[in-house]
Amino acid sequence: MRFAVNLSILFTDLPLLERPAAAAKHGFDAVELWWPFDGPDPGGVALAELRRAVEDAGVRLTGLNFDAGDMAAGERGLLARPRGSARFQANIDVAVRLAGELGCTVLNALYGNGPGTDADLAVANLRGAADAARDIGATVVVEALNSHDNPLYPITSSEAAFELIDRVDRDNVAFLADLYHLHRMGEDVLALIDRHAGRFGHVQIADDPGRGRPGSGRMPYPEIFARLEAAGYRGHVGLEYRHQGPGAFDWRRA
Do 87 and 121 form a contact (C-beta atoms < 8 A)? Predict the structure, then answer.
């Protein structure tokens, strides 16, 4: 398995621009990010600083979220929100350009909280994002979140995500299999891998309960990794768990 550290949830004791180097220091050569700016376009200087921090650390950016609104305040995307659609559209070319400059080929588009989300709008926005991402050879991924942590988020199962992806009808739109969220919603993640790994554009992990590192909860991660390998998944696995102190990565040596 190839792992990528999610710098938006790990190393959060450090300023963002120091986190790529921290990941490299811990032996990782890949990182991923939620959209790290307050707004769709932070300007060239901020983007250049982030790009330089990633390049100077010698790591590769393997996943990037489109602007998802104010995540800290509980927003979870703009894709299907009529009042957020213009902001999402303003971010498409900015995010795609940054991804292209860093060789990132996975872009995550979060659906957005309800009520009032519009599935037709989500489809249109996903098509626009996918068409732009195609220019850099990238895939746009759709993620299901769990309703316990995200009670207003409408896409809470792999089935709902697959239905949306099928409506978009673009060959570079795929599923982001966040196994923590899916397991928390009661899905059999081993069966999901066996049946649908070919539809995975990206995988993210944390253990359940607690959203901690693998081994801190009850999910069978040795078997999960073996099933992903057997199913032919060759992408990175994003580490999207809470840091939990100095032993955050000791499970890799177990």
Answer: no
